[in-house]
Amino acid sequence: MPKQIWKPSTLLTPTPAALVTCGTMEHPNVLTVAWTGIVCSSPAMTYVSIRPERFSHHLIQESGEFVINVTTAELVRAADFCGCRSGADTDKFAEAGLTPVPASQVAPPLIEESPVSLECRVVEVKHLGSHDLFLAEIVAVDVDDTCVESDGKLNLRKCGIVFYSHGEYFGQGKKLGQMGYSVRKKRPKNPIRDSSERPKNPIRDSSERPQKPAKVKKEEKNRFPTEFRNGKPVFKKREPRK
Q1: Phi then psi for 41, rounded to 5 degrees?
Q2: C-alpha span between 68 and 181 (Å, rounded)
Q3: Residue 37 and residue 83 in contact, taking contact as beta carbons nearer than 8 Å
Q4: Assuming Cys at both sites, which of 51, 76, 105, 126 could form a disulfide with 140, CB separation 3.0 to 4.6 Å?
Q5: Dihedral of the alpha carbons of 121, 125, 126, 128, in degrees to the nearest 10
Q6: Mean pLDDT highest for which of 60-74, 148-162, 193-207?
Q7: Full set of structural domains in the chain with CATH
């Protein structure tokens, strides 16, 4: 299909609507970022890109620590508020109704209402232009019990995760597939289930099935057949009365 050529832009969607906490338990701050993601699995590493003029920028730069808190449908309004107000003149935790709780490995607090929090420690800062990228190692992950199944598996579909797409917030849609489903080999057919290989049932086989008695025509009822051919009764044609 034909495509239009546009100038370079950040047209990648969807992105997280992550609540990033910084500062300390005594003086916590939170901002909403869309520029975040995973960059390495071993060691587990992530990043956040923040404009230098944002109040949270210098807090993360000075401490070298932050926490990425996953946003749910119940936290959308708080996430929008924290992305539109500055922590320089607003207590965003109090105004947004969020609860700070201590993290296990870093000084910034977790958000108690968030089901998943990634505790991060900065390893490098890259000045990119409009944003500075804080590359960080994930040093701990905090998961709410409601997201863990009885067998210990993580189930984030229970949490109602929210995504951001160019100015709009969206919830999770229906499941369309599972990792690896496109290359998974099909199971071989069971020869017993395959009709071509299935042994014939002598009772169901028409050649062995006992023949049903032939139906007698209405006009031949109460008449005695003179002979049988191929298992069917043969009646003599009645002679008309003179």
Answers
A1: -100, -30
A2: 30
A3: no
A4: 105
A5: 90
A6: 60-74
A7: 15-171 (2.30.110.10)
Q: Are 168 and 12 in contact (CB under 8 A)?
A: no
Q: How far is Cα 37 from Cα 54, in angstroms, rounded to an integer?
A: 19
The dihedral over CA atoms of 82, 83, 85, 88, expressed in degrees to the nearest 10, equals 80
Say if CB 31 and CB 82 are below 8 A apart: yes
* pLDDT for residue 117: 97
Cβ-proximal residues to 79 (8 Å cutoff; 6+ apart), any chain: 17, 19, 32, 71, 162, 169
For residue range 5-49, list pLDDT tens digits in order: 999 999 999 999 999 999 999 999 999 999 999 999 999 999 999
Amino acid found at 146 = T
**Side-chain-side CA neighbours of residue 239 (13 Å):** 2
Residue 110 has pLDDT above 90, yes or no: yes
Once rounded to an integer, what is the mean pLDDT over residues 112-124? 97
What values do phi and psi take at 220, rounded to 5?
Answer: -100, 5
Neighbouring residues of 223: CB distance < 8 A, sequence distance ≥ 6? 235
pTM: 0.75
Find which of 7-16, 50-59, 142-151, 187-196 is predicted with most confidence, using mean pLDDT: 50-59
Question: Whole-angstrom Cα distance, residue 104 to residue 118?
Answer: 11
d(CA 219, CA 232): 16
